[in-house]
């Protein structure tokens, strides 16, 4: 039997979510090992000492960056054409997401850890990115046009995390296109399929296959 890759994952982590979204779309099956961030399995740390999820262990090696896992899965099989559906300027949004937006998101969500920063200003900074997405999404359902692309799946989990820092605030904003985009994602079978709850993995447990 061919080796089924192992994915160390954490349900609510947006990086792990984007990896699971790509794996689910590609149909690439993995052995899912749910982890607890404060008690990471030694086997995961042995494979990837930096200690972040997601971590994918394949026959050929360890992939411990979420975007690399997305590309790995979709290079093997991309039935939705997620990679092709992405022009360069949309791909650049992923860099903005992972850089300044994620920083501002963390500074909003974990404001107590940043006593020198004004949480309102951090949120305003994050909202600049949402405004950019909103403009792109005006008149089209997805960032690249009519079809979902890798950028949508790479960015949506972070926008969800940002919206959930204060849903009343989110709903009151004039970002109707971004709000519709996020709402459609949250209501999708695609989202439901990656948000199954698993008990944390322990050595010796039965294999849990995903998707
Ligand atoms: N650049 C990494 C970032 C992954 C990351 O930071 N994941 C967080 C959870 S959302 C993590 O594992 N943090 C380590 C910790 O909290 O101990 C990727 O894209 O995979």
From TrEMBL:
EC class (word): transferase
EC number: 2.5.1.18
Pfam families in UniProt: GST_C_2, GST_N_3
One Gene Ontology MF term: glutathione transferase activity
Keywords in alphabetical order: Transferase
Span of domain GST C-terminal: 86-211
An annotated GO cellular component: cytoplasm
UniProt-listed InterPro entries: Glutathione-S-Trfase_C-like (IPR010987), Glutathione-S-Trfase_C_sf (IPR036282), Glutathione_S-Trfase (IPR040079), Glutathione_S-Trfase_N (IPR004045), GST_Omega/HSP26 (IPR050983), Thioredoxin-like_sf (IPR036249)
SUPFAM superfamilies: GST C-terminal domain-like, Thioredoxin-like
Domain GST N-terminal: start-end pairs: 3-81
Entry protein name: Glutathione S-transferase
């Amino acid at each position: 039997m061919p080796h089924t890759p192992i994915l160390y994952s954490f349900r609510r982590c947006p990086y792990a979510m984007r990896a699971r979204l790509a794996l689910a779309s590609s149909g690439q099956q993995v052995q899912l090992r749910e982890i607890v961030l404060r008690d990471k399995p030694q086997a995961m740390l042995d494979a990837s000492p930096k200690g972040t999820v997601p971590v994918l262990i394949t026959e050929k090696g360890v992939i411990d960056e979420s975007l690399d896992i997305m590309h790995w899965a979709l290079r093997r099989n991309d039935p939705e054409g997620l990679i092709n559906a992405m022009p360069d300027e949309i791909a650049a949004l992923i860099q903005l997401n992972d850089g300044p937006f994620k920083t501002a998101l963390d500074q909003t969500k974990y404001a107590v850890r940043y006593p020198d920063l004004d949480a309102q200003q951090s949120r305003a900074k994050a909202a600049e990115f949402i405004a950019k997405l909103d403009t792109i999404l005006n008149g089209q359902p997805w960032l690249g046009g009519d079809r979902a692309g890798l950028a949508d799946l790479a960015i949506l989990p972070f926008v969800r995390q940002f919206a959930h820092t204060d849903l009343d605030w989110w709903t009151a904003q004039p970002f109707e296109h971004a709000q519709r985009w996020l709402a459609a994602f949250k209501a999708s079978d695609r989202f439901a399929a990656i948000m199954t709850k698993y008990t944390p993995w322990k050595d010796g447990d039965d294999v849990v296959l995903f998707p």
